[in-house]
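[Meeting: bench + compute handoff]

Bench side (C.D.) handed over the final construct sequence. Compute side (W.E.) agreed to return the predicted structure before the next meeting so the bench team could plan truncations. Sequence as handed over:
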Amino acid sequence: MLMRTDPFREFDRLTQQLTTGTWSRPSPMPMDAYRSGDEYVVAFDLPGVTLDAISLDVERNVLTVKAERRPAAVDEGVEMQVAERPLGVFSRQLFLGDTLDADRITAEYDNGVLTLKIPVAARAKPRKISITGARTGTEQQQLNA
C-alpha cells in the first residue's frame, strides 16, 4: 500500500496559511496516485522544472522527491511586475508500504509531469495455496483392506 505523506505536513501547511494569510495558494508539488494492475502510479506536477533539477531517493521505505524551480532569466533593465510562481527547492516524501517493490521503481519526466511507477512486490500478490489432507485412521484401515 502507498501512504501519502507524514501526518505533520498538513499541520505545517495550516500554520503557514495562518501566519501568511495565503489561503488559496496551491501545494507547490501537487500529485495524483492510483493503482493500475500490479503497480502504483504517482504523478507529480512540476511545471517549469528542468530534468536536471529533479532528484529521487529511496531510503528504507521512504521515497523523497526534490525539485528546484529556478527563476527565469530576465534581461537587464527589465522590471518584474508580478511574481506569483513559487521558486526554490520543493520536497515531498512518500512512505512506501512493505508490499511495494522499492528496488524496481521507474520514473519518467514529460511535459512538466514526473510519473513514477512502483510495482507491487511479488510476495504481496495473491496466490493459490494447495491444501493437503491427512487421512484418518479408519480411512487408512479401509485402504489397507
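W.E. noted at the follow-up: Residues 8-20 form the longest helix (13 residues). C.D. will use this when planning the next construct.
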